[in-house]
Amino acid sequence: MNPVTVVHAAGVDVAITPRPGAPLLLLVRMASRGAGVWDAVWPALAERFEVAQFDLAMPAMEELANPAQVFRRFAAQCTHIAEALGHERYHVFGWNGGTHVALRCAVDAPARILSCVLLGPFTRLPDMRAVEVGLAVLRTLLKERDAKLYAAYWFASGLSSKFLATQYDRVEGWVRQRVATDKFLAADVERAMRWMVALRESWVSHEELACVRAPVLIVSHDDRWHAGPTVAMAQALAQQLPTSRHEHIAGYGSLVLLEAPERFMAIAEPFFATLAGGASAPT
Prior knowledge:
The chain is of the alpha/beta class. It has a single domain (5-274), classed as Alpha/Beta hydrolase fold, catalytic domain (Rossmann fold, 3-Layer(aba) Sandwich), CATH 3.40.50. Helix content is 44%, strand content 16%. The two termini are 20 Å apart.
């Protein structure tokens, strides 16, 4: 694999594995790359794609009055960055909150999106009471202003019990890394909570989802983090996306990419291989 380098494109720093002639895969997630969330799966993806990722700026408080517009802005930024990197068309891989951005890309720039992968997508369910309880727990942790405790709880909720029991040294390293790099942990509590609530809403309409034409792979994991995303959210979204297929990874939580990237790749590789020329043709 070519080394990951940082380039300046469309006004932001972009981490990228240069691979001339390969299609672009843009990784989209709210947490920064400095938190290490993409590291375990990046090499496997880079065998097929030119992989790139940039940090999304947490919305200002006034922007959170209209989260739908924030996601449109993020989607437009994805396309601008792809163009600056020399790609008219690209694949997009959204994880958790990044799935809102990936879906917005598919709706707003249908001619440019070759495929979407949605890992742990959020969407609103008819009954959100359990999610609301989870959010209340997160509010309590954030109000304590203990970033280390919040990060430790986040990792513990996303990893399997076996991993926590046998590899907690790695967890402590990830906690330190996230505390040192993730600006979300230093955000005002009310701003952070408004953003987390917004992530658990639906920002693409049923009508827009029905018009998505790009192939979509939806991957869910077990429910261990009670604030979502949940399997039910992934199932509900799959029912609205005619070009999607839903796969579930049992036995792992939201951090399956860190704990068992091979489990994710076993699902993703066949999807990429069946794309109609999109994963192998140069842009």
